[in-house]
Amino acid sequence: MYVPPAFREDDVDILVAFMRAHSFISLVSVLDGAPVASHIPIVVDAAEGQVSLSGHLAKANPQWRAFDGRASLAIFSGPHAYISPSLYEKRESVPTWNYIAAHATGVPRIVTRADDPAAIEAMLAAMIQQYEAAYQIQWDSLPATFRDSMLKGIVAFTMPVTRLEGKYKLSQNRSPADQRNVATALLASDDPTVAGVGAAMRRIDEGRSPHPLSVAPSSRRLVSGLSRGGCRSPGKGIALDSTVIETDRLVLIPMTTAFFEACLAGDLDTASQVIGLRVPEDWLLEGAVMRVFLERLRRDPAAQPWLMRGIGLRATGEMIGTLGFHLPPDAEYLRGVAPGGVEMGYTVFPAWRRQGYAREACAGLMGWATREQGITRFVVSISPENEPSLRLAAHFGFRKVGYHIDDEDGLEDIFVREAEA
Questions:
Q1: How far does Cα 153 stand from its chain's mean position?
Q2: Cα atoms in the Cβ-side hemisphere of radius 13 Å centred on 381
């Protein structure tokens, strides 16, 4: 890839975060002297200094025959945007295009069930976990004959990366004024792809990673049982004593008074900077909810870690939902069903549902409350018609203890979960 020095990105952690966020790739090989390409989803793994890709092709696709000891190229394409010369200070300027891309080169190795059945199962599980974790239950329940027939129709491979190139063409060769003009114009776009370029430019201008919440591969750990909860350095607008919870794919960031105030004022840019996530416009429609939690924070600032949090994707910095506890532990209204407990609620925005994010976020929040705060009783209130939430409650072992009539939501069943301290 042609990469002028101004646009070159060599930080492996930054590139891995980008690759994970844009994992539908173009895989290019050479077969019988001619280039061939396939467009496929892959899983990016990074451990002990080695980046590798894994995925599969249809067996009917001849490209896998090109893997015999020969290199292939994986192309990762990110946000891109047309840049008008009207945004530059000098009239003697021409149009261009800003974009982010990464190229990963390596020699794919075919993995067969006969040689390594455990590896095939692990690769499929990793792909399901990345793209739709909830599907794992359905896949495991399918007849063995059907699963075997599906597996016979694919060719799985791993590709250790031997060369990794990153290109972040974000107007670094222009003046600071030009860069700010371009970023401001792109951020104002209704097209999320265009706005994504502006967001990356803005983060670089502020001295931050072009990918918010990018995490070094060495610091990532797989989640087992209740997801791990831990502290990280707080971002702008987050109180120093706030606890940010991280899971494998998500970050759960407490919402502050400054965040709610910016949202209620309709200032998405400031709100996004305060929480460190890109906040969607639809969130501004939840004004009534925001006012309730803002008032609770103003009455008791120390309650912040217990109240509402933004659910963010660690790889991209998108805010994909909210969750939190209604009040700090041992609220008076809960003492009859769960003394010392907390009531939990969550919302995953429609575009991000059915990918296992709700389960992962709830596990992370409850895990933090139990390990860090000693909370063992959790309460949820669910409408009898809300089947996804009922399934989630069953997964975590909640048991029904009663019901109540909510002023807005009507009949809701009350469930309690007892966790081991």
A1: 30
A2: 18
Residue 2 structure tokens: 């042609």
Domains annotated for the chain, with CATH where assigned, are 5-175 (2.30.110.10), 221-418 (3.40.630.30)
> Is a pLDDT exceeding 70 seen at residue 236?
no
pLDDT greater than 60 at residue 90: yes
Residue 82: the pLDDT is: 96
**What is the distance, to the nearest Å, from the Cα of residue 117 to the centroid of all Cα atoms in its chain?**
29
Q: Is the dihedral of CA 401, 404, 408, 411 positive or negative?
A: positive
pTM (two decimals):
0.55
Helix/strand/coil (H/E/C) assignment for every residue in 373-415: HCCCEEEEEECCCCHHHHHHHHHCCCEEEEEEEECCCEEEEEE
Gap between the Cα atoms of 341 and 366, Å rounded: 11
Dist CA 248 CA 226 (whole Å):
11
Q: What does the radius of gyration of the chain's CA atoms come to, in whole angstroms?
A: 24
Both tokens assigned to 95:
């149009």
Give the side-chain half-sphere CA count within 13 A for 402.
7
**What length does the chain have?**
421
For residues 283 and 266, give the distance between their C-alpha atoms in angstroms, rounded to a whole number: 10
Please, which residues have CB within 8 angstroms of residue 382's CB and are 6 or more apart in sequence?
389, 390, 393, 412, 413, 415
For residues 173 and 180, give the distance between their C-alpha atoms in angstroms, rounded to a whole number: 13
* Spatial separation of the C-alpha atoms in residues 418 and 395, rounded to whole Å: 13
Give residue 321's pLDDT: 94
Secondary structure of residue 35 in the 3-state scheme: strand
pLDDT band at 407 (very low <50, low <70, confident <90, very high): low
> For residue range 288-319, what is the model confidence (pLDDT) as tens digits?
888 888 888 888 888 889 999 999 998 888 99
Which SS3 state, helix, strand or coil, does residue 302 take?
Answer: helix
Chain-centre distance for alpha carbon 245: 13
Contact present, 346 and 391 (Cβ < 8 Å):
no
